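Bug report (template v2)

What were you trying to do?
Predict the complex of my protein with S-adenosylmethionine.

What happened?
Run completed; filing so the output is reviewed.

Input:
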Amino acid sequence: MPALSQQEFNQIRKRFQAVTGISLNDSKQMLVAGRLNKRLRAYGLSSYQEYLTLLDAPNAADERQLMIDLLTTNETHFFREPSHFDFIRDEVFRQLKPQQTFKAWSAACSSGQEPYSLAMLCMDKLGAHNAWEIFASDVSSKVVEEAKQALYPLHESTELSHDYLHRFCLRGVRSQEGQFLIKPEIQRRVKFAQINLNMPLPVVGEFDVIFLRNILIYFQLPMKQKLISRVLSQLKSGGYLILGHAESLLGIADDYLLAQLTTLHPSVYQKN
Ligand SMILES: C[S@@+](CC[C@H](N)C(=O)[O-])C[C@H]1O[C@@H](n2cnc3c(N)ncnc32)[C@H](O)[C@@H]1O
């Protein structure tokens, strides 16, 4: 593997940050070298500088997206941080008005486990006939495409209860051996899009719940503030913003943002 010089690393992280808002610290140099090395090999390039030159070509939009896909960290699980799902079941659903369509947005959905978990919970507690919609997006087109496939390795099935596995999933056969599929009636309720939260948002609508979990950790303060206010503009009054357990708005939100929110738990906020 060619060495990634400090100067090349700086150029790559500057480019990555300009698109995603994510700042990669010095400890990520080896990781970046490893993840991009496969692109050097694919093109038969002998240095990262050559790859950077290639990225500048006007027709290299797909390669620029591929670089973003390779450098984002997409770790996720079904029903990750389960207390958030308990909160939705016990508090949010209880407050729904008759005829109200429940709308949730998983704003950094990775490969789909988070929005499908939400959809299973909705199907279980709100049912097939009630109105509910899940919208899910991520900056990485690769994970969004994976999410649309709704096909997961069998070992991830242990993250689901037997009941949910039985009711909402199908065991893969033939070419899908060793995998399981989210049932079409769940899949149909989840709409996916590629959305970069570092850019002005397209029209996404207004939501009762927005999941913005395990993403703030990758940003520096000004970007965190920008991102929170951007996402908050899509939350209904009385709606809930849910961050990852290790995240909070303490030290992030300025007075203007704080005035819009009530803290219910360190990672759960309600819009006033
Ligand atoms: C660690 S995963 C968290 C997935 C899921 N929310 C969870 O908690 O399990 C973080 C996700 O944020 C996405 N991401 C990073 N920067 C983003 C941006 N600027 N806009 C949208 N998504 C972004 C990454 O692609 C990645 O899939």
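What did the reviewer find?
The mean pLDDT is 96. DSSP finds eleven helices and ten strands in the chain.
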